[in-house]
Amino acid sequence: MTASKSPLPASIDDTLALLGANNYVADRALATVVFLALRMQRPLFLEGEAGVGKTEVAKVLATSLKRRLVRLQCYEGLDVASALYEWNYAAQMIAIRIAEAEGSADRKRLSTDVFSEKFLVKRPLLEALSPDPAGPPVLLVDELDRADEAFEAFLLEVLADFQVTIPELGTIRAEHPPIVIVTSNRTREIHDALKRRCLYHWIDYPAFARELAILKARLPGASEKLAREVVAFVQSLRKEDFFKSPGVAETLDWASALVELGAKSLDSSLVGDTLGVVLKYQDDIGRLDKAKIEALLAESRAQLKAAE
Amino acid sequence: MNAAPAVAENIIAFARALRTAGLKLGPGSVVDAVTAVDTAGFTTREDFYWTLHAVLVKRHEDDPVFDSAFRLFWRRRDPNEAILHEMLPIAPVALAEKPGQRRVQEALQESSIKQIPRRQPPQQELTYDMRGTASDLEIFARRDFAQMSAEEIREARRHIAKLPFAREEMPSRRLVQNARGRRIDFRRTLRASLHAGGDLIDLRRRAPGNRRPPLVALLDISGSMSDYSRVTLHFLHALGEARDRISTFLFGTRLTNVTRALKARDPDAALASCSRAANDWSGGTWISSSLHDFNKNWSRRVLAQGATVLLITDGLEREPGEALAREMDRLHRSARRLIWLNPLLRYEGFEAKARGIRAMLPHVDEMRPVHNLESLEELCASLAKLR
Fold first, then answer.
1. How far is the CA of B320 from the CAs of B112, B253, B315, in angstroms?
2. Is B304 exposed, middle or buried (0-12, 13-18, 19+ CB in 10 A)?
3. Which class is domain B160-166+213-385?
4. What chain A residue is nearest to B186 in terms of C-alpha separation?
5. ipTM exceeding 0.95?
6. Do B186 and A100 touch (CB under 8 A)?
7. Do B302 and A188 count as a contact with CB atoms less than 8 A apart?
């Protein structure tokens, strides 16, 4: 297959281990879809709430496979010039002037000379298609839902055939297809045509055991007691009817905030003081008064007890 | 043209009927159809069907319309049937109602078909003559949907399809060609100067373009709204034809997303699949729980990029209170513009007395009536304006 130095995982278990070795605690469903995406050389489309570790998958894959990470952050108005390629206009102008000064202003030749690879400035998508000694890079197209629909159309060719067409130059095709991860927070629906070309996976909030494993892997400094309490509390928060439930990123932030504060275990005033790390909407914070926090704490402790 | 003139003339009439039924056919397609029949030969019925189909049907959605139209138009007419036809009081069109069929029938009745003599089914006396004078039209536009007969509702639906759905546009960050733009488009500048041999550098410019923000409609289908919800759904279907990025939700006791169902091109098929999707038609209203459901599960998915929200309800809530106000507030803050369409505004002396209405009113940008054609037309004008 590819001439990469670090081999792709050979099985789903391998994939789980690979991600785990880099502190990404994946569940079997995610490991399966990552394994298939790597094997079938298909782009992987990851969707899920904010802060469940979509972007992290790409970062961890790049580190563990020792590939370069090419990241394209999407935003409204993102166009070919900043995503695919751009011509080096200044250099082109100079080339034209020189050609004129030499008196060889053959129009046809001039335009093929000026629009050649020498004057091409590569942007992330084209960069990802270029050969790399470490093996094809990991291309992360982050938060695709932030780009406007016009941009999705540019992506179709890249995702389907791993090639881009530059009108002046022709079609550039990747010798070895990059590993493509597309993420979306689902602030709008991505077009079916794009989804069709990818393997799709919805990353959900992790269950207690896995979230605890994530917290321990990412934050070894937190005490066992605190880690268990934090995870149990966040888990019971997610059962409540909040406008925005806390993600794994919030759990990690909160735990490290509590470690910074030197906390050994949770109590209601500590939770009340640090609530802004976990909940990001005033409506949601307003609904959690002291009594409610006490109730949630009691509930999460009871669940911890029952689990033991 | 070798085809018998009668056949050619019939093909033209057939194409005209299809056009009235909603297919987008130019004169070119009609010429193509005649040429195609000429080329393929006028042989079996099936071949003839597929020959016309190949030329006249450009979209999959038009298949059922074409099929019904073909069956009705190119019916075999044996003498016995003609006699039977004369004797029966009503034209025997007892086929199972398929989507698009009604439109086809209406279209066929409208077009003048000379070669096949058809007896018009005895038209019911209309309570109202639509094709009357300008002032009649004006009165019709002001007529309440709730007081219209089935026939008049059909007429109203035809009017709705012709409403001027201007596009709402807001500035985008994407740059497009613009001769008076502020930024230089280097790529086009360089290409243009190469065309001229590289001697002249004629600056090309670009500027931010426009984009169309999404539209989200939340339509109340409870019992108190039943006179208006179907007409409004028809309006939303027509609106969806005219502009992209429209999501539609129905709610009574629960929330149903019918965006995909409404995408069907044929209005009858779209409305039928909407009816199948929602099974709380003409029941009670739980506005606040439906809005809660929307806010929690959908608002982030469909309200980004500056959406306009049309909330179509009379605001008669079973359990008005704090929760309703909170959900309205949340909805208002997630949307760029929240328009409440309330059929109760048809009453001159409407006052916000019901508790549900009082709870909702502070959280909307504007409240408009939605009970007749005139109000729908005003809504279209208001939607086109950018706020």
1. 56, 14, 9
2. middle
3. alpha beta
4. A89
5. no
6. no
7. yes
Q: Give chain A's length.
A: 308
Query: Are residues B330 and A283, on separate chains, in Cβ contact within 8 Å?
Result: yes
Q: How many CB atoms lie within 10 A of CB B239?
A: 22
As given in the structure block, the two tokens for residue A243 are 């406008």
Strands (E), chain B: 170-177, 183-184, 205-211, 215-220, 246-251, 255-257, 308-312, 337-341, 366-368
Q: Which residue bears the tokens 């009379």? A: B314
Interface of B with A in 285-304 (CB under 8 A): 292, 295-296, 300-302, 304
Taking the C-alpha atoms of residue B291 and residue B296, their distance in angstroms, rounded to an integer, is 8
Alpha-carbon gap, residue B251 to A119, rounded angstroms:
57
- pTM score of the predicted model: 0.75
Q: Please say whether the beta carbons of B178 and B206 come within 8 A.
A: yes
Gap between the Cα atoms of A187 and B139, Å rounded: 44
- Which pair of tokens denotes residue A34? 């990552």
- Note the Cα B283 to chain centre separation in Å: 25
**Nearest Cα residue to A41 out of A198, A205, A173:** A198
Tokens of B10: 């019939």
Per-residue pLDDT reduced to its tens digit, B91-133: 444 444 555 665 666 666 554 444 444 444 444 444 444 444 5
The SS3 of residue B87 is: helix
DSSP code per residue over A60-94? HHHHHTT--EEEEE--TT--HHHHTEEE-HHHHHH
Report which DSSP code applies to B284: -
Chain B residue numbers with beta carbons less than 8 Å from the beta carbon of A150 are 174
Chain region(s) in chain B for CATH 3.40.50.410: 160-166+213-385
Helix (H, G, I), strand (E, B) or coil at B177: strand
Per-residue confidence in pLDDT tens, chain A, 308 aa: 444 457 889 999 999 999 999 999 999 999 999 999 999 999 999 999 889 999 999 999 999 999 999 999 999 889 888 999 999 988 988 888 888 787 765 666 777 778 888 899 999 999 999 998 989 999 999 999 999 888 888 888 888 889 998 888 889 999 999 999 999 998 888 888 888 889 999 999 999 999 999 999 999 989 999 999 999 999 999 998 888 899 999 999 999 999 999 988 899 999 999 999 999 988 889 888 889 999 999 999 998 988 77
